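Justification of resources, computational component.

The compute hours requested in this renewal are based largely on the per-chain cost of generating structure records like the one below. Each record pairs the submitted sequence with a full structure-token output. That output is archived, and it is also reused by downstream analysis tasks.
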Amino acid sequence: MSLKGSVNLLIDALLSVIYPQRCDLCPNLVHARSDGTTCATCWEDIELGGIAGTICSKCGSPALGQVPLERADQVRCRRCDQDEFTAARACGVYEGALRSAVLRLKREPYVCERVIKMLIEIQAGEPLNRASMIIPVPLHDERRRVRGFNQAEVIADALSNACHLPVNTATLLRTVHTERHRAGMDAKARRDSVVHAFAVIHPRVVEAERILLVDDVFTTGATSSSAAGALKEAGASEVFVLTLARAR
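The structure output for this chain reads:
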């Protein structure tokens, strides 16, 4: 084990004794800082995304049945045919430990090491590994003032530090302050709420680039599709989407 690994184990052991932290989801203690506020057992229970042959090759939604690996890129759910992005992937389903991580990120600008490793693994696979630039989905100025930060930017910075892709936060803007998507809104209502919600103010920056658009949760794909459409209209060659979680 490396010196850094040994030091981290020692620190984790000391923190468990001095400042014991209960898991957000169960009575267990959290023994590793890298797990955030959820214990290792709860992390093991999450339903991971990105499994070859079991997801739509475009939007990443679960597909029925298994297919041979060589045909994985042909699996399509057809519900995402009109979406503007090239492909979308998520670390897993918005439940359990991932949901806890997302909710914490909405309160404070923090992404635990376990989630960062998951993001890195997915970004390193096809087709997201073709990306040349990271752009976080922007918040409208009004919402950002209320929250104090943009959680998508926190994800983008963490991923950039690990995979060494440049981050651009000044080119894509959210020009329309939309209502929060409410539970029970159907796909059409969500899409209508974000039509023309984004604008690109420096087209030359994204021209011919392969953009990795990052956000916290992929629900219907409406927000990602609208943002991707603005980027492609400005000249981006491809737009990929990477989120911490996706709705079931």
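Residues 3-18 form the longest helix (16 residues). Strands lie at 87-90, 133-136, 172-174, 198-200, 210-218, 238-246.
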